[in-house]
Amino acid sequence: MASASSIQWNVVVALVSVKLNRDNYLLWRSQLESVMDSQDLLPFVDGTQVEPQKEITKDGKTEVNPEFGAWRKMDRLALSWIKATVTEAVLGQIMRAKTAMMLGRLLKNLMHRRLLTKLRSAPFAGNAEAEGFSVVEEEGIKIQRCRELKG
Known about the structure:
Strand content: 5-15%
Radius of gyration: 19 Å
Low-confidence stretches: none
Mean pLDDT: 81
C-alpha cells in the first residue's frame, strides 16, 4: 500500500495548471495522472488498489482491519486531489462519488460522453486535433459511431 504523501497541497494545485471544465478533459487528465502517479495515488483511481475488507476476524474476534484504515486515508487523499482540480460546475456533477475509483469512472464517463456528443455534431475533418484526440482515438470514435448507426 502507498505511504502517506509528502507532497504539499499547494504543489498539487500548482502542478495541475488547469481546472477540469467541460472542454479540457484530456489536458487535465494528463496533468493530474502524472502528479498522482508520482505519489502512488493512481492505483486508487484506476482500481488496481482494491478496497480491503473493513473488518477482519482475528483469534475468533471481529476487529477493524488496519489495512482498511490506511487504504481509506490514501483514497480520500486521491479523492480530494481530484476535487481540488475541477471547476465548480464539474464538482456539482461529481459530488456523489464516495471513492477515488468511483470518481475516476464517473468523470471518464461524463467527459467521454460529452466529447463523443461534440464530435458527432461536427464533421470529422480536422476535428480530432481540435479536440485533443490522437488519430487512434479519432478512429475509435468513428468505429463507435458506425456501430451505433448499425445497431
